[in-house]
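Backbone-to-sequence.
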């Protein structure tokens, strides 16, 4: 055995030892991971995210994966000759588009993620928000078509899977009492589901480092933020553009019972493990107030 390999094995052992307090802390706890958008496009990164989730599951953390798939939906619409249209960041969803959304999210994307998790040793089951009326919704705005506003979360199907030892993989499609399908914003759905589960953590994977004081400078990352501090950053326009609804979802999740919410860069390899199993952490953590540990 070479000196280099001895050093490498020693490093590995040290990493595992440092992770032990965090494994104890989170074992048996529920962690909801929102995964979607541009963070899903790179296949190698997608593979690493699934490996991280399986590792967390293997050490006893009860992981729920909530996913979107906007780029895949737009790609399918292009193939079918239908031009995507957005208003204030929300996809205009007519009857034909909601059928495409359902086909892509509940079909191709959801089953692809389930297959990846199982290939890496996990036991996963895919759900759409329509299964068991998991996500009940109503029309948000007639001008947007079948874009849904959540009215209720029926969490029993998710709890049944967790108690059975599975990783639930949830596509964000809702339904109403008449069986109409609705396209639901992924961040909103993740916040409601995490709240209904009383999750220890909600991790929102995105394509930036977190909340930045200067959007052009990654070095200005804000590592932790209370709700009052976030409110002040809204007032100062530090939180602006597409980050506004994301942070609002974080705050909603905390009000609904989630202990802490993390916004992190899904393009960083193994960012989930860095956040949960190391002192370093990753991204921006949003908490209720400074008294939260």
């Amino acid at each position: 055995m070479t000196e280099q390999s001895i050093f490498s094995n020693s490093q590995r052992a040290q990493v595992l030892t440092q992770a032990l307090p965090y494994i104890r802390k989170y074992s048996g706890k529920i962690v909801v991971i929102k995964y979607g958008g541009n963070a899903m496009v790179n296949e190698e990164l997608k593979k690493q995210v699934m490996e991280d989730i399986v590792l967390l599951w293997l050490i006893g953390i009860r992981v729920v994966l909530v996913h979107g798939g906007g780029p895949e939906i737009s790609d399918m619409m292009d193939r079918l000759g239908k031009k995507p249209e957005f208003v204030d960041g929300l996809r205009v969803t007519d009857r034909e588009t909601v059928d495409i959304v359902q086909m892509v999210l509940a079909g191709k994307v959801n089953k692809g993620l389930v297959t990846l998790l199982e290939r890496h040793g996990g036991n996963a089951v895919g759900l759409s928000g329509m299964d068991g009326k998991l996500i009940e919704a109503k029309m948000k705005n007639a001008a947007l078509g079948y874009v849904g506003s959540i009215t209720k979360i029926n969490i029993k199907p998710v709890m049944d899977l967790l108690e059975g030892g599975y990783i639930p993989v949830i596509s964000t499609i809702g339904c109403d009492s008449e069986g109409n399908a609705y396209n639901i914003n992924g961040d909103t759905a993740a916040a409601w589901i995490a709240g209904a589960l009383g999750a220890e953590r909600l991790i929102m994977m995105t394509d930036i480092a977190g909340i930045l004081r200067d959007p052009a400078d990654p070095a200005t990352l804000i590592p932790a933020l209370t709700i009052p501090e976030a409110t002040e950053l809204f007032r100062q326009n530090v939180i602006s553009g597409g980050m506004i609804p994301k942070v609002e979802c974080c705050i909603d999740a905390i009000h609904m019972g989630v202990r802490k919410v993390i916004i992190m860069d899904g393009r960083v390899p193994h960012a989930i493990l860095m956040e949960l199993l190391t002192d370093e952490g990753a991204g921006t953590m949003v908490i209720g107030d400074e008294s939260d540990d």
